[in-house]
Amino acid sequence: MMHRWPVRVYYEDTDLAGIVYYANYLRFIERARTEWTRELGIDQTRLKQDEGAVFAVRRIEADYLRPAVFDDELIVTTVPARITPARIELDQQVLREDEVLFTARVTLACLGADMRPRRLPGDLAALMRS
User: Fold this and answer.
1) Which residue out of 15, 50, 71, 123 is catalytically annotated?
2) For the domain that residue 115 is a member of, what is the CATH number?
3) Is 15 assigned a catalytic role?
4) Which regions form coiled coils (predicted)?
5) Of 69, 73, 63, which is closest to residue 26 (Cα–Cα)?
């Protein structure tokens, strides 16, 4: 299932050259991941309180293909690529209409209250695959 989340480029997102500062793409995809989990019905605050589980970025592989500029209307897509008992790999893209500007493969690790890897709680993996 592909999740789509819209984002507009604001002046504060750009650098001296007038293009989106590279680190802001990471902010865009982070927000899209949060909205993806929210739409799945996953309350990350409750997950931490009740299960002691949090997600942390373990690895990210990113490609910057084309620049976005001030006032662009973008779409961030999120697609689960691989889900293991303790990790989630997601493919994310930032698009302007049909043009791919940025791609990333993000690996999230599930951590327990002790900040050590742990299994995904309950039926979370099945929910994310749906």
Assistant:
1) 15
2) 3.10.129.10
3) yes
4) none
5) 63
